[in-house]
Amino acid sequence: MRPIRLPEPPGGFSGVPEIFEGGLYGAIRRAVVIGNGFAGAENQSIGLVRALGLSGRQSLYRVTRPRGGINEWLHWLPVSLHKKLEYLMWRICGERRFEVIVKGQKVMPRSVETSGLSDVLEADANHIAKMARETFEKDGPLLVVASGRDTISITSSIKRLAPDNVFVVQIQHPRSHLNRFDMVITPCHDYYPLTPHAQKQIPRFLRRWITPREPPGKNVILTVGALHQADSAALRNVASAWHDELAPLPKPLLVVNVGGPTRNCPYGKDLAKNLAGMLQNVLWSCGNVRISFSRRTPEKVSKILVREFSTNPKVFIWDGEGPNPHMGHLAWADAFVITADSVSMLSEACSTGKPVYVIGAELCTWKFADFQKSLRERGVVRLFTGKEDISESWSYPPLNDTTEAANHVNLALAERGWSIRTY
């Protein structure tokens, strides 16, 4: 057995060496982030790791689904089953391309050219759990943070394979068997199905299939919105980086973030036309307006706004070329207008304490309508009407979900005799 050199006692020595207080073996100095390839989900995990002080000590793995062609119709399957089915089809069809006719359209399934290789390692539960066990004595416990449905089977397996060596945080509700994780962090609106209002909307014979089916347990931490990386330190850094481009702009600076329609927040040309008209109405009170589209924004929506404002000297439209100004906009904007579909963009903007106006909230249904309602009740957003004077500012207690979630992680670790070490 190797000799153990006990640390020198601090001023108030308790009589118990640090090694037995969880000091050496209970110090978490590293994290594994398991992503699903979607920025909205991965940013939540990275944001939490950053808030815990481990941003420079994280490794990123990804759970990847087969993409392209017929695989786009198989995303409802569990990722493990999807991969097995895709492999079976590939073996049957060989390495040649083949075509499937779906509603008269040619669809190209998996091919060598479209599958590609990622720069990020594929998440393998056995590998990560083995690493956690074998490095525990030298490096201490491993923090595992993941977000999104496709990561659930990986993180739950890691917890099962290395229960004494990892602390697993699953972000977004995993729907069932929450005891598979040390902690689940999820927004309050994920529990909307349990409310009396929601129960009235669900036929009785379907209620057993709608999740979650029970109130949050001790290991569930509820937030208002999504976690993110836009903390005060990050915004100070990007404010400096974007100073030369954004600081000289006339004030107030109105930032407009346009997402894309979803199943529970559908919209199209009508919302784009309404947004264009409302922006025209408030343009007189703005020094400058900057419009950004997301990857989900339909071309039919973006075209309307581009046609309306592309020649207006007061309006800048980011065309997707060059550095993404999103974080710079969060730092330098005086007010925001955001489409209601994006929980992430709203959560980030509402953490700044600056005025946030929402368009399209009336189109949201189910738990996303509940999310919009909670933001309005907290006073962090107002509905965009086109009658606003953007130069008139208002404020509110900013959302602080990421920091609060990190505090809960620290408390849970302390109960286990573990702690985050950032030095």
Protein traits:
single chain, 423 residues, alpha/beta, Rossmann fold, 3 domains, 7-stranded parallel beta sheet, 6-stranded parallel beta sheet, 15 helices, 17 strands, 34% helix, globular
Can I get a quick summary?
With 423 residues, the protein is of the alpha/beta class.
Structural class: alpha/beta
Q: Quick one: CATH class of the largest domain?
A: Alpha Beta
Q: What's the number of structural domains?
A: 3
Task: Provide the spatial order of strands within the biggest beta sheet.
Answer: 6-3-2-7-8-9-10
The CATH architecture of the largest domain would be 3-Layer(aba) Sandwich
Poorly predicted regions: 1-22, 95-118
The dominant shape is globular
> Average pLDDT, to the nearest integer?
87
* Distance from first to last alpha carbon: 27 Å
Beta strand %: 15-25%
CATH topology of the largest domain: Rossmann fold
Count up the helices: 15
Beta strand count:
17
Helical content class: 25-40%
Largest sheet: 7 strands, parallel
**What oligomeric state do the depicted chains represent?**
single chain
Using only CA atoms, what is the Rg? 24 Å
Organism: Carpinus fangiana
GO cellular component, one term: mitochondrial outer membrane
Pfam families: Mito_fiss_Elm1 (PF06258)
GO biological process, one term: mitochondrial fission
Characterization of the model:
The protein is built from 15 helices and 17 strands. By secondary structure, the chain is of the alpha/beta class. Helix 1 crosses helix 15, helix 4 packs parallel to helix 6 and helix 8 crosses helix 12. Strand 7, helix 6 and strand 8 form a beta-alpha-beta unit. The chain has 3 domains: 168 residues, Rossmann fold; 47 residues, no CATH class; 167 residues, Rossmann fold.
